[in-house]
Amino acid sequence: MxxxxxxxxxxxxxxQLLKIKEETSLIDKSNVLEIExxxxxxxxxxxxxxxxxxxxxxxxxxxxxxxxSKEKEYVEIIEPVELELKxxxxxxxxxxxxxxxxxxxxxxxxxxxxxxxxxxTENEILSLDDTQWIEFYNQKFAEHNNIIAExxxxxxxxxxxxxxxxxxxxxxxxxxxxxxAELLKKAEADKIKAVEQAQKDAELKAxxxxxxAEDKIKKEQAEKExxxxxxxxxxxxxxxxxxxxxxxxxxxxxEETKTDFVIEKVGNKVRLSKILSIYTLE
Length: 282
Known about the structure:
Oligomer: single chain
Structural class: mainly alpha
Largest sheet: 2 strands, antiparallel
Order of helices and strands: HHHHEE
Strand content: under 5%
Distance between the termini: 175 Å
Number of helices: 4
Radius of gyration: 73 Å
Strand order of the largest sheet: 1-2
Shape: elongated
Mean pLDDT: 87
């Protein structure tokens, strides 16, 4: 393939551009006219370069699109066949790999059968290459060890639980026996105490009944004596009132004349005075 098939030529070459750059850098920077002329020259040169570059790019883009289109057209003719053959080749290689792995399958199944893990399918095992199989087996072996450790832990916990429950039961039975003996002892003591209390209650009841009988006799005797005394006092009072009323009557006091008298009691004596006259003070 030719390396210089595409030749790019601009209106200015590198040497010319370096010369223009040097010339414009040597102008009087304080002279506005010189600066304006230099800017115009540089703008003209730059635009000429950019215009030519755009022309070349447009041509290159058109050529590039044409090349891509033709490339795609040619590739689409042969690529499907290539892909089909590659798929067939890959399938055959995979089949050969699987056949080779099947020879080791019984050994791998035997290795897994002694582990306490969920067995994978044969297809799952055949899908693993040597490195993947080693990682898979190590993972299952670790799971197996974890399961064994967990089972041992559960067995130990169960044994400890049974031992604890047996001790609790034994302690409870011993406590129950002690409490039973204490209850029997207390019941016997309560029985003896109840008998003694019954005897005391009977004695107290007999004493109380005897006291109540004596108190009743005393009360009846006192009531009788009080009644007799009251009767005597009432008789005396009646006799005294009769004698008192007779004294009042003998001195002229009656219900009709009682307003004419003044009765005064001094100690155990009664004084009867007759009102002769009443004077009202002014």
